[in-house]
Amino acid sequence: xxxxxxxxxxxxxxxxxxxxxxxxxxxxxxxxxxxxxxxxxxxxxxxxxxxxxxxxxxxxxxxxxxxxxxxxxxxxxxxxxxxxxxxxxxxxxxxxxxxxxxxxxxxxxxxxxxxxxxxxxxxxxxxxxxxxxxxxxxxxxxxxxxxxxxxxxxxxxxxxxxxxxxxxxxxxxxxxxxxxxxxx
Length: 184
Hints:
The chain is built from seven helices and no strands. It is mainly alpha-helical and 184 residues long. The N and C termini lie far apart (50 Å).
């Protein structure tokens, strides 16, 4: 059913609630039956691309319910299930129902914790969580840090922090990389 929208991504309260409730019900069923599924389907990258379909940008969008149903089917039925009870390895932790709901909540605001002014509450939650983690592993009060998206970003952040703290003033003044010619 085609539906007029004020903007391509606009969605009214009733449609949001209907789709959201359907998705939460589907995810709840998925979580409840994950132990009945294979840990992985073992599909090749080529098979996954074929399942995904058209590789070019579609000329027209799809209705939200069809798009969400298709994405749900693809993600829930063609992913490695690291929350599966027989998943034994790798570095990621299992998904949790509470974590999924927390992601939904966070996504509804889409906070940017790059600076306190951009997202004061998310920044405060991050600081409190870092404090709790420091306390949990026995560090003295006052330790700090940041939460990052993964190992690569953690390593990059640690490198920059170490360089900032320990590099000579000469290196800091010259930067760690040559200045780029921006005359173009």
